[in-house]
Amino acid sequence: MARGKLRIHLGAAPGVGKTYAMLSEAHRRVERGTDCVVAFVEHYDRPRTAAMLHGLEEIPRRQLDHRAAVLTEMDVDAVLARSPRVALVDELAHTNVPGSRNAKRWQDVDELLGAGIDVISTVNIQHLESLGDVVESITGVRQHETVPDEFVRRADQIELVDMSPQALRRRMAHGNIYAPDKVDAALSNYFRPGNLTALRELALLWVADRVDEYLKQYRSEHRVSAIWGSRERIVVGLTGGPEGRTLIRRAARLAEKGAGGEVLAVYIAGGDGLTSASPKELAVQRTLVEDLGGTFHHVVGDDVPAALLDFARGANATQIVLGSSRRKAWQYVFGPGVGATVARDSGSDLDVHIVTHEEAAKGRGLPVARGALLGRARIMWGWAVGLAGPPLMTVLLGTVHLGLANDMLLLLTVTVAAALLGGLLPALASAALGSLLLNYFSTEPLHRWTVADPKNIVAIVIFVGVGVSVASVVDLAARRTHQAARLRAESEILSYLAGNVLRGETSLEALLERVRETFGMESAALLERGDHLAPWTCAGRVGAGPPVERPEDADVDVPVGDRLALALTGRVLPAEDRRVLAAFAAQAVVVLDRRRLQEEADQARTLAEGNRIRTALLAAVSHDLRTPLAGIKAAVSSLRSDDVAWSEEDRAELLEGIEDGADRLDHLVGNLLDMSRLQTGTVTLIIRETDLDEVVPMALGGVPAGSVTLDVRETLPMVAVDAGLLERSVANLVENAVKYSPHGTPVLVSASALAGRVEVRVVDRGPGVPDDAKERIFEPFQRYGDAPRGAGVGLGLAVARGFAEAMGGTLDAEDTPGGGLTMVLTVRAAEDRGAARPGLSTGLAPPTAGGRPQEHPAPPERQAS
Q1: By 3-state DSSP, what share of the chain in percent is helix, strand and coil, each rounded to 5?
Q2: Residue 57 φ/ψ region, left for φ over 0, alpha for ψ in the -120 to 50 degree band, beta for the rest
Q3: When comparing pLDDT for 226 and 440, which is higher?
Q4: How far is Cα 452 from Cα 531, in angstroms, rounded to an integer?
Q5: DSSP state of 819
Q6: 341 neighbors 274 (Cβ within 8 angstroms)
Q7: Using CA atoms, how far apart are residues 41 and 615, in angstroms rounded to an integer?
Q8: pLDDT 10s digits, 179-224
């Protein structure tokens, strides 16, 4: 069955009209007679969106029980059984209720696509997995519901639903998006003009990159070599000289003038070896171009101008930036140079910028444009001298009679000149033609092809031998120079590979892309031998139409061991290129193995961490939970015993023991549950502006009276926190401080404001903690020093730090002046809440893909002391 097609409506923020556009498309298809159903659409009581559902068939949703509530999800089985032509599935990044068929809704969509059903869906830009950190830095909200970028990129059609920030805020103010009681908070927080503008830019740029990928694929499939200036791409030609930094900065300024400009710096390794690049300088320039947002490319090519133009056209570049030639004036007799050649051959589709710099005309400029070995122009000059030189010299010698010896020397000079210019073949032609002319016009008998004097035969033989010898030396020198240049280029590439091995930086796809661009191929793939059902599987691929079924389908295949092969398409490579290609193939295998080992290491690390926590939890349960349970059991058994008549005082003491044991159990179990939620990342928050003098006193209800001194002024600014989590964090800190403080010495809890942040300090006068142990005390199941087994399971501080970081704050330990330990809990003031960290929603819970209100743990029920 053919796989269904996926169409995605992408928006910058909630309320731009994605669902409305999806439903409008559904009505258009229904009018054309297409079998279209609503698998899952959430309208959030928006009247216009709800009205669009009329006239469309809706698949009943599946009901699931979760935490004493009945929630609904898309019924995948019902949709598959209905088997429509098109299904509408809203909110692609939504996380399904536990117990659903799949964990994520995009996995449900993938299943529908696999069944041959076309799907139309919606997603916001902030839910793309790769943009999580960027969105968090803009809005202060960490999106926990995400969809993999690769799944969205594979969509057959992506439609941008766009709206200006001003129009979206007007829709919000009119009550078209959220309920009226949430409008003010939304407009002042998540839906601020700056946030919406930044999210809109992200959406536009992401879609532009996707369009650019489509364009590259189309150009590759249709073999379009002409440059289409759809966006500015600027190629910078580097020589490895110090002027490269100037060129890169100049190209970056050019790119900034156009929207979406891109800089590609390229170093052509090869040529005749006359110019040697500094590896150190190239490394500096690579870092500079990457810091400026560009990319660095290393390409092998003997003809520098041709390789540079081929690279520019292959990258669909619109401009080339080159530096002024570093050659002196007299060096131009050897040719126009790379800059002039590129400008001449660039055509009308490429603009060439020649940038002046301090190194111009100071000597040893760019290599002259040449072909293989001696170069095309030089070989042509060699043939011209070799064929025309001897007749011209013979005519000249016919007017001036210098004798046979001088005639031989002059003709030998012409042969040497032909050898120096064109190599072996022009010199052989010159020697043969010169010997014939010398025999016919200069040796007795004249004008005859015979030689009367045997000495003249020896002279002619020596003449030919000297010419051939000189030509051979020149040709050999040219070949050695060419080989040296090629080996130098290979060594630079191998050095690059070795550096990547040591740094472990290159991903498999990036390495395959480097192979493809280095050898000028159309595609590259790493194939792995499978079983009899699938003889070969593709471990990684780049480019258009790579071979994925078997290596024999490629133009070039390099086997690596018994199970892997590197396959390339585009052209047949010469034998000398396979040495470097084999190195790339070996590196690709290393990268693949490293990736798999990293995945296995991550899994092992996760299992080890889980085992460590389970082991510690079992140890805690074995004693710390059994002790209060044993006390409660003993007290209850005593109260129920008929053998002893308990006095009212005794009964009150036993009941107090039961209550204390229950409180200990409640505290221990609460910390265990909190830590499990932190470990699994299920802590969600509701952040509101809160007064510290309302929350902190509530955290002191579980400690003995008189054990804490409170200093929290009412003039402090409000803080942006989850009140329940803040109370739990402070309670754990205070309980820990009271536990280690000397008897009769109260713990000080104070608060102060500094630079948009508020610090809560819990100060004790206990034994303190050494510097090397200050971080370990925040790890789960850690009890510092010789704390007794009944002192808890060692989770209080770990939970406190976890909750603090979830609210965008920090928790650190400092030494108390004069002895003791001070816990510093730092949270953001309400005025600075816009820059909150993961999970923070300022004033309004962040819109989630599922659209359901978020939960937060209930605060512990403590009374103010």
Answers
A1: 50, 15, 35
A2: beta
A3: 440
A4: 82
A5: S
A6: no
A7: 45
A8: 777 777 777 778 888 888 889 988 888 887 777 677 766 666 666 5
